[in-house]
Amino acid sequence: MLGIVALTSALALTVVGCSRGGGGSDATGGAAAASPGITDTSISLGITTPLSGGTAGPGTCTVAGITAYFGAKNAEGGVTFGDGKTRTVDIKALDDAYDPQKAKANYDQLKDSVFAMTAGLGTPTNRAYREAAIADEVPQVLVMTGDPIFSETNESPWQLGFVPIYQNEGEAFGKLLAASGENHKVAVLYQNDDYGEGYLEGFKSAVEGASNIEIVKELTYEATDTAVDAQLTELASSGADVFFNAMSITPLVISSLQKAQQLGWSPSWFLPSNTSSPTAILQPGGADAFPGVYSVSFSKAPASPAFADDEDVQTFLAGLKQYADYQDMPAFPHCMWSFMVGATLEQAFEKMTEPTRENFMEALRSITDFQAPLMLDGTAVDTTVDGQPAVSSVVVQKYNGQGYTTVESFG
Questions:
Q1: Could you tell me the CA-to-CA distances from 170 to 76, 150, 205, 247 in Å, in that order?
Q2: At a CB cut-off of 8 Å and minimum separation 6, what does 122 contact?
Q3: What does the alpha-carbon distance between residue 212 and residue 223 come to, in Å, rounded to a whole number?
Q4: Which family is it part of (predicted)?
Q5: Each residue's pLDDT tens digit, 136-145
Q6: What is the DSSP string of 225-271?
Q7: How far is CA 220 from CA 33, 94, 234, 275, in A?
């Protein structure tokens, strides 16, 4: 059975069915036929994401953030669209457990009743229904994957990623490391798919020609693996003082941190943004034992003392509790990211002059220099650059025992 995320009555987001109401006009001057999932009073969005299994933590966040954002908007009466109509935004989320086949089945279940698919986590799961969405002309937008194929307009006008592509993250760390001027030996463990390969590609492009950086060992693991102890043991013997760990599975990151300590290996680490949570990963893994753990970010971390009194953070946390029934401090950045997705979608809705998917994609791809709530200084939403997702700018940060501090140099 496909699991539908249980939303409490406090957030009660009702899914609308296929509708043909709406405003706008066609080429003959008549009313433009509305796409499925939108009426004069509401619009529905679909999400397929892991709500169970090893990636349930970040997956649940992809629903919670956007639910919090639009829950608050709905409480205010809804979002005013560019056609002058005010609509509430309804969310329908299905669990795919990070299984591509389930993700495709979820899409098939949702496609005729939602206006667009959004926010879902995972490269293999988003890829699983990408071709179908293109054929059906269903927007698959602001999804949580750094796969660059989702941001190439020439490949498809119906997709757009949200988070920085994997190459952007790997390149940012590689540049920081190369600029240190010190000699470093790097060991690499990466997921054996487009996710891991993208991170490694970006990193290698940044250190290419840097005489102070030597990659001494590269190994892979499968996303379905339950342990990587053998790889850690082999990498520990490489003599590397830097570990580039392009890994997406939360339990494996924790066990990797612990295994390295058991082996007496203490390199500096680089972790992807989606598997670098201080409370959910670094603290359980004992990251304090290492000279430095680095990652990249574009969003404020509510748990960081630096943002304790930040107005955006306070609004975000209140929305999570009231509209998404998410009472804890977010352990994963996906909660913040999906909140930003909501704000970005609102920008597109405000530009829509017709209730159609085509007009929505035009509006979505016209957003520039948008400072979404929770964005770090130096980052912004820009959907106009072909080959880049909505967010392509990141800052490198270093774990300080509680959260992250932005760094200008490696060390």
A1: 41, 18, 9, 12
A2: 49, 50, 55, 59, 96, 98, 103, 144, 145
A3: 32
A4: Belongs to the leucine-binding protein family.
A5: 999 999 999 9
A6: -S--HHHHHHHHTTT-SEEEEE---HHHHHHHHHHHHHTT---EEE-
A7: 50, 30, 12, 17
Q: What is the pLDDT of residue 42?
A: 98
CB of 193 closer than 8 Å to CB of 248:
no
User: Is the pLDDT score of 176 beyond 70?
Assistant: yes
Alpha-carbon distance 118 to 110, whole Å?
12
Mean pLDDT over 308-334 rounds to: 95
How far apart CA 93 and CA 51 sit, in angstroms, is: 9
- The answer to whether 59 and 51 have CB atoms below 8 angstroms apart is yes
Tokens linked to 159: 């997709």
Provide the token pair at 91. Answer: 């969310």
Q: H or E element: which one contains 44? A: strand 42-49
Average pLDDT over every residue of 193-205: 94
Structural contact between residues 228 and 249, judged by C-beta atoms closer than 8 angstroms = no
Q: Examine the pLDDT at 24 and tell me if it is beyond 50.
A: no
Structure tokens at 293: 């753990």
CA distance 154 to 141: 15
The mean pLDDT of 201-207, rounded to a whole number, is 96
Q: How far apart are CA 45 and CA 43, in angstroms?
A: 7
Q: Tell me how far apart the alpha carbons of residues 203 and 182 are, in angstroms, rounded to a whole number.
A: 17
Q: d(Cα 146, Cα 392) in Å, to the nearest integer? A: 10
* pTM greater than 0.85: no
SS3 144: strand
Sheet holding 42-49, edge to edge: 79-80, 86-95, 42-49, 116-118, 140-143, 159-161
295 has a pLDDT exceeding 60: yes
Phi, psi of 243 (to 5 degrees): -115, 115
